[in-house]
Records
---
Amino acid sequence: MDNTILAIDNIFKAFPVNAGPGKTVHARAVDGVSLTVAKGEVVGLVGESGCGKSTLGRLALGLLLPTAGKVYFQGKDIGALAKEDLRALRREMQIIFQDPFASLNPRMRVRDIVTEPLVIHKLAGSRELDERAAAILARVGLSADTLMRYPHEFSGGQRQRIGIARALASGPSFIVADEPVSALDVSVQAQIINLLGDLQKDLGLSLLFIAHDLNVVRHFSDRVAVMYLGKIVEIAPAEEIYTKPSHPYTEALLADIPVPDPTVKRKHILLKGDIPSPTQVPPGCRFHTRCIYRFEPCDKVVPKTTDLGNGHFVDCHLRG
Ligand code: SF4
């Protein structure tokens, strides 16, 4: 039986960008990505800011329409669904946003924020809402006395718990967590990661967990995909990404993470310069402008995807 809940099939998303009087260029935010998420699976999606990972998350949920390619959720092509059908499917697909300060309506009480999905999807009558809101808030570690308060009365970590409660309210099976801890203090990040890990296990959720730091997704991802300038350049079971990284970009991202085992030596590779603009994607391997290993074909020939076995795939001439 097919266990796939989400299948992204060769998807592209380009945004028009004003490049001066009468001139428009296109930013290739997502540039030919295929990715699956299985039922109950956590896929970590990692890369620097501007690599297209948040755009990919929104495409996965049908919040953005692709320029080309398809997204299938529970086997249905979400781009071909009628508005009403997509709306009904959205009950199953939710998002946790990065910024718990901007993502909660400051004029709404916590009760109304977390029960909004129940009202939109007609999942509860007005008499049940208080009870349902209190139960969802308890699930994320907040007491019922928060119900009638407003978002500004809470800390960043508490606000993110409210955002998680809202995402859980409609009983989704798939959640995109879009950098859910990057706006939080380091001391609070671990609490929110642990909460998400517990909820994922208890509720059997499928999760696309977006982060710019490989360390953040390490502990509860089943697989990790590394994205660079609109493309997934490496994907593997989580432990394999950390122990046998095969793309120079993954190696460079890992070089920033301290190794707990002193017997393990990791090459220290500095990532030089910034990620190029998606309006000017370099030819050949898109990482060649920053790669310390680049050689003859790298600036001309696009590397093919190489299957290293065990679900490990990489786009690099060194492995092809
Ligand atoms: Fe570096 Fe070449 Fe591999 Fe690209 S294909 S990552 S430039 S070695």
---
Amino acid sequence: MPELIPILSKNEIDQRVTAIAAKISADYAQSELVVIGVLKGAFIFLSDLIRKLSIPVEVEFVRVSSYGTESATTEKIRLTYELETEIKNKDVLIIEDIIDTGLTISFLVDYLFAFNPKSVQICTLIDKQERKKKRIDIRYACHVVKEGFLVGYGLDFAEKYRYLPDIYHLKL
Ligand code: 5GP
Ligand code: MG
């Protein structure tokens, strides 16, 4: 049986999301901000986060899938749900569930920059540090872990566990 080891309780998540929302609200007080959630993993984080902001935002989503081999450098990332709104000259904040190697987020940053936004910054629920393949400037991170596979609060393993209110380390 897979084992679920608690990492962050829903109360701890709530406190961190509240703190990050306050920072974002202050930093973008004078902006036209578009938050872009990365489906599916970020949907719960995004929905909690935007309700704690004290500034107006537009909400968009993209979806990415990665294909290919285990070796992440040869991995092919592609969008399966594209941006549908104009972000030209707007401030963009990508809302991601986990940044692991950093390949997905750097692909997304490049993709979004092609639409000529005013700025693109990154907000992630989890920054996983051990496997970084790219240097990524993560402006907002709720929680930093060294390693391990996490589930719950939107994060899945084979589409399971997304609905759990807390975050766990999954040991298979
Ligand atoms: P990357 O390695 O490109 O930074 O991360 C790619 C994607 O893999 C993330 O957006 C996330 O959806 C998924 N991922 C990475 N680590 C984990 C993890 O520990 N748990 C879950 N559920 N997904 C992960
Ligand atoms: Mg993801």
